[in-house]
Amino acid sequence: MVYRLGWMIDEQATIRKRESSCSIKTAPKPYAQSEPPKQQTIIEFDCRGLEFTDFTPEGEWLADGIESNTKFEGIDLQEGEWYEYDEKANDEVSIKDLKWEIKRA
Predict the structure, then answer these.
(1) What span, in angstroms and rounded, lies between the C-alpha atoms of 19 and 23?
(2) Family assignment (predicted)?
(3) Mean pLDDT across the stretch 15-42?
(4) pLDDT per position as a tens digit, 8-21
């Protein structure tokens, strides 16, 4: 399954009388499934005066079936997993064992 991110950020905040900003450095890229699964860079941000410390997969996510190209929308990953049935492929599809890492570039 190929996973695509579905969010955008371009925020400015004032914290302790210090201006901070964050913008997207490179556009979000789809996560391409591989065996075994491998770590991939999904998105890069340019942060000034702030730092990301955690990530929560909120909102609606999108996925495409590998064999069938079935479009799945409105995926909720807040529980850390998602299961569905792909009618075209006649098979169960899932997203599970989610892991992520926030790194300084």
Answers:
(1) 14
(2) Belongs to the UPF0587 family.
(3) 83
(4) 444 555 555 678 88
Specify whether the CB–CB gap between 3 and 37 falls below 8 A: no
Q: How many CA atoms lie within 13 A of 9 on its CB side?
A: 17
Q: Does residue 78 sit in helix, strand or coil?
A: coil
The number of CA neighbours under 13 Å toward the Cβ of 24 is 10
Strand partners, 47: 22
Residues 6+ apart with CB under 8 A from 18: 49
Give the predicted TM-score (pTM) of the model.
0.68
CA dist., res. 43 & res. 37, Å (int) = 18
For 32-60, b where at least 16 C-beta lie within 10 A, e where not — what string? Answer: eeeeeeeeeeeeebebeebeeeeeebeee
Sign of the torsion formed by the C-alpha atoms of 86, 37, 35 and 31: positive
All structural domains of the chain with their residue ranges: 2-95
